[in-house]
Specification:
The complex is a heterodimer of chains A (about 190) and B (about 325).
Chain A (H helix, E strand, L loop, with lengths): L5 H17 L4 E6 L1 H7 L9 E8 L2 E3 L6 H14 L6 E2 L4 H5 L5 H4 L1 E4 L4 E5 L2 H15 L3 H9 L3 H14 L3 H13 L10
Parallel strand pairs in A: 1-6, 2-4
Antiparallel strand pairs in A: 1-2, 2-3, 5-6
Helix pairs in contact in A: 1-3, 6-7, 6-8, 6-9, 8-9
Chain B lengths: L2 H23 L15 H11 L4 H14 L5 H8 L5 H13 L18 E2 L12 H5 L2 E2 L20 H9 L3 H12 L4 E2 H8 L3 H13 L4 E5 L2 E5 L2 H7 L13 H15 L9 H21 L14 H13 L3
Parallel strand pairs in B: 1-2
Antiparallel strand pairs in B: 3-5, 4-5
Helix pairs in contact in B: 1-2, 1-12, 2-4, 2-5, 2-12, 3-5, 7-8, 8-9, 9-10, 12-13, 13-14
Classes of the chains: A alpha/beta (about 190), B mainly alpha (about 325).
C-alpha cells in the first residue's frame, strides 16, 4: 500500500464520514498507530493505514473484528473514490482488546468528529507509548522507534508501558527482548528480571 | 454540468428514445426516426416500462401495444431478462394487465407476490381517481387503464422489427433469436455461450436450437479445437428476407445497454440527489458506473475512472454521455 500523507488521512476520514452519513449509520472508531499520532499532531509522517483497535458503542469498547458491513461498504467506496487499497482502514490491531488495553485507556481517548456520522477516538500519547514500545520490542526498530522517540517518553512512562507489554506477551522470550529494548531507549535498571 | 441539467438531459433523451423505438414498432406515437438497428423487444419492454413511469401516456400506449402484439413477445425471454431486475414487479403487472385485456401473453413464470404496501407507479402523482385493480394487486397505485386500441402490428419491413419478422418465420423461439444475432452481428465464428447471452436463453435451449438450425443448413457450424462455432450466410438470408444485403439491420447489445440505461435512469430519479454533498454525489456516481461497467463495456462503450473524490463528477458526465450516445 502506498503511504498516506497526513492530509490524505484526514481527507479519507472526512469522506468516510460522508459515506456513513449516506448509509445513515453512525460509527465510532477507536484508532491507534501512526494515523492516530498524525491526527493528534504528535508526529508528522506518512502512514500506511488507519488501525482500528475497537469500536465504541455507548461509551463501551467492542471488538472491531469483523468490521460492521456498513463500515466495510463505506470504506471500500472511499478506497475506490481515492484510489487507495481496500485495507486503508482495518481492524488489524483489534487483538490488543482481547488481552487488555492499558488501565484508564478509555478515559484518556481524544475524540475527533469527521461529520455527523463518524467519531474517531484517538489513543492518547501515554497509551501510544505503550503500543509503540510493545511493537518496537516485537517487530524491531524502524518507524516504531521513530514514533516512540518523537513521543519523548519519560522513564516512568516507559516502565509503565513495559509492564503493560508483558501482559500482552508474558513469555520469557519476549521479556528477553524487552529489557534490551528499554536499555536501548535509556532505561538501564528496568527491574524486569532479565 | 449541474446534476439538475444532467438529469433533464438523461430524462429527455431516454424518453424520446423509448418513444421513437415504440413508434417504429407500432405504438401510436409520431416519429420521423428510422433506426438502422434490429431492436430487442423484451429488453426494450423492460427498459420502457421503467422510464415510462415518468410519462403516463407512453406507459399506457406500451401497455396497449403489449395487449395487441403479445403473440410476438416471448414471455420466457421477458422472465429471463427481468429475473434479477428491480423493474420485474412492473413487468409482472403489465403482462397480467395485457393478458386480462386480450393479449396472447400469459403470466410470467416466477412471478413474485408483492410483500409491501402499494406505491405510486408514476413519478408524479396525478389526479385521484379509480385505481387499476391489476396493478394494485401487484403493488402499484395506477389510474385505471382503458386500452387505447391505437396500437398496430409492427411493420415487418422496418429494420427495427427484424426480431418480429424472424419470429413470424420461426415462431417465438430461441431459433429466431439465434438467427437475429448471427445475421445482425455478421459474426462468423460465434460460440454457443455468446449466442446464449444475446438470446437471453439457457445454453441448453440455444444448443438444441443451434443443432436443429445447422442440421437444416440455416446456420453454418464448424469446430475450433473441441468447441463449435457458428455463423450464417448473410447474402442467402438477405435474399430470403428480401433485405438489401448492404443494409442488413445492425446489432446492438440491447439487454446490456438498456439495463445500464435503466440503472442510470433510476439513479437520476433518486429523491435525495440534490441534497448530497459534491463528494457524496460523485461517490454514488462512481458506484453506479462500477455496477454497470460490465454491461456498458459489453455494449461497446469504454468506461473512464479518472478523478478522485468529488473530482470524479466530470468523468461521470462523460461516461453517461458516452452511454447515451449509443442510443442517440
Amino acid at each position: 500500500m502506498y503511504p498516506l500523507a497526513p492530509e490524505a488521512i484526514a481527507e479519507l476520514l472526512r469522506a468516510l464520514g460522508q459515506r456513513l452519513e449516506l448509509a445513515r449509520t453512525p460509527v465510532e472508531l477507536v484508532v491507534i498507530g501512526g494515523s492516530a499520532l498524525t491526527i493528534l499532531g504528535l508526529v508528522e509522517r506518512p502512514t500506511r493505514d488507519v488501525d482500528v483497535v475497537a469500536l465504541m458503542e455507548g461509551g463501551v469498547l467492542r471488538d472491531a473484528k469483523p468490521l460492521p458491513p456498513a463500515l466495510v461498504e463505506a470504506k471500500d467506496a472511499v478506497a475506490a473514490d481515492f484510489g487507495v487499497s481496500d485495507g486503508w482502514l482495518n481492524a488489524g490491531p483489534s487483538d490488543l482488546l482481547e488481552w487488555g488495553l492499558p488501565d484508564g485507556f478509555v478515559d484518556r481517548l481524544e475524540r475527533r468528529e469527521f461529520g455527523p456520522s463518524l467519531s474517531i477516538h484517538l489513543a492518547s500519547r501515554y497509551d501510544q507509548i505503550h503500543f509503540k514500545l510493545y511493537a518496537l520490542t516485537d517487530q524491531g526498530s524502524g518507524r516504531h522507534e521513530d514514533d516512540l522517540r518523537a513521543l519523548a517518553p519519560t522513564r516512568d512512562e516507559l516502565l509503565a508501558a513495559a509492564a503493560w507489554a508483558r501482559t500482552q506477551d508474558p513469555s520469557e522470550g519476549f521479556n528477553e527482548m524487552l529489557v534490551p529494548a528499554l536499555r536501548y531507549l535509556g532505561v538501564e535498571d528496568a527491574g524486569l528480571g532479565a | 454540468m449541474r446534476v439538475s441539467e444532467l438529469r433533464e438531459r438523461v430524462t429527455g433523451t431516454l424518453l424520446r428514445f423509448a418513444g421513437d423505438q415504440w413508434s417504429q414498432m407500432g405504438v401510436f406515437i409520431a416519429t420521423a426516426r428510422r433506426d438502422p438497428w434490429a431492436q430487442d423487444p423484451e429488453a426494450l419492454l423492460l427498459f420502457s416500462l421503467e422510464v415510462a413511469r415518468a410519462d403516463p401516456r407512453l406507459f399506457d400506449e406500451v401497455l396497449d401495444w403489449l395487449r395487441a402484439n403479445g403473440d410476438v413477445v416471448s414471455s420466457r425471454r421477458l422472465s429471463h431478462l427481468s429475473r434479477h431486475d428491480p423493474g420485474r414487479p412492473v413487468i409482472d403487472a403489465a403482462v397480467e394487465w395485457a393478458a386480462a385485456n386480450g393479449s396472447a401473453l400469459r403470466r410470467l413464470p416466477g412471478t413474485v407476490e408483492p410483500g409491501r404496501e402499494p406505491v405510486p407507479l408514476f413519478r408524479r402523482p396525478g389526479l385521484p381517481g379509480r385505481e387499476d385493480p391489476i396493478f394494485l394487486a401487484r403493488g402499484f397505485v395506477k389510474p385505471a387503464t382503458t386500452p387505447s386500441g391505437k396500437s398496430t402490428p409492427p411493420d415487418l419491413r422496418a429494420p427495427i422489427n427484424l426480431a418480429f419478422r424472424l419470429r413470424r418465420h420461426f415462431g417465438v423461439s430461441a431459433r429466431a433469436e439465434i438467427v437475429r444475432f448471427l445475421l445482425t452481428t455478421g459474426v462468423s465464428n460465434a460460440t454457443a455461450l455468446a449466442i446464449a447471452a444475446a438470446a437471453a436463453s439457457t445454453k441448453r435451449n440455444v444448443s438444441d436450437a443451434l443443432a436443429e438450425l445447422s442440421a437444416a443448413g440455416d446456420v453454418e457450424r464448424f469446430w475450433v479445437g473441441n468447441e463449435a462455432r457458428y455463423g450464417v450466410d448473410s447474402a442467402r438470408w438477405a435474399s430470403f428476407l428480401e433485405l438489401d444485403p448492404h443494409a442488413i439491420p445492425t446489432h446492438r447489445d440491447w439487454p446490456q445497454l438498456l439495463h445500464a440505461l435503466a440503472e442510470i435512469w433510476r439513479w437520476f430519479a433518486r429523491p435525495d440527489l440534490d441534497e448530497l454533498s459534491d463528494y457524496q454525489r460523485a461517490s454514488e456516481a462512481r458506484q453506479l458506473i462500477h455496477r454497470i461497467a460490465a454491461d456498458v463495456r459489453h455494449a461497446g462503450v469504454s468506461v473512464r475512472d479518472d478523478g478522485t473524490g468529488a473530482d470524479y463528477w466530470p468523468t461521470f458526465i462523460e461516461n453517461v454521455e458516452a452511454v447515451l450516445a449509443r442510443v442517440a
